[in-house]
Amino acid sequence: MTWVGASEAQQYGSSVLEGQLVRFRALENSDLPELVRWSNDSRWSVLQQFIVRPRPYEPVAEMFRRWSSGERGGDVGFSVVSRESEELVGHVALIGATLPVRAASLAVMIGGEHAGRKYGTDAVRLLTNYGFCEMGLNRIEIRVHAFNTPARAVYRKVGYREDGLRRAATFHDGGFHDEVIMSVLADEWSAQA
């Protein structure tokens, strides 16, 4: 899109980090205890991680710091807060974007007590838009356990498609489980906007 004047640019700037239900802001040190707690909650980590185990505070906190710092040019991360209450509800990141490929992996974590309130859908939509409109990405993908049907439904609702299946890619509860690769491309995103 070509802007005619500064007011159009400012309008875009005022909306690029705000969705209908959530807004993104920089990670704050006060966010870390809650993010680490959510990351170590086994009821939710089984849906997102390859092994269910509590990890020490500092390595988990450092992961969120690294994703949010932007030190590596292809990573961007944000704390997700409710627009209504300003309460921290999660964290999102795009990881590994590089030239010339211009593709990134999506990471999403919404705190367990905030699940089912549509924060995740709004955050995924907002971050996907940010990736295409602000970072110039061509592809955003996420890998999700096949049994995590609520997450897969969110990604489909936002516009992600299932690319393929990594058969028996994860191991939980004594058995192997499939992992689904989902993605959306820039031209698909702009066509639905």
The order of strands across the largest sheet is 1-2-3-4-5-7-6
Give a short account of the largest sheet. 7 strands, mixed
What is the CATH domain class of the domain at 6-138?
Alpha Beta
Task: Write the element-wise H/E pattern from the N-terminal end onward.
Answer: HEHHHEEEHEHEEH
| CATH fold group of the domain at 6-138 | Aminopeptidase
What spatial form do the alpha-carbon principal axes imply? globular
CATH superfamily of the domain at 6-138: Gcn5-related N-acetyltransferase (GNAT)
Radius of gyration: 17 Å
Q: What fraction of the residues are assigned to beta strands by DSSP?
A: 25-35%
Strand-pairing-aware structural class? alpha+beta
- By DSSP, the count of extended strands is 7
Q: On the 0-100 scale, what is the average pLDDT?
A: 91
CATH architecture of the domain at 6-138: 3-Layer(aba) Sandwich
List the main descriptive attributes of the protein structure presented here.
single chain; 193 residues; Aminopeptidase; 7-stranded mixed beta sheet; 7 helices; 30% strand
Q: What is the structure about, briefly put?
A:
This protein has 193 residues and is of the alpha+beta class. It has helices spanning 6-15, 32-39, 42-48, 57-69, 119-133, 149-158, 186-192; strands spanning 22-25, 76-82, 88-95, 103-110, 139-145, 161-172, 175-185. The longest helix has 15 residues, at 119-133.
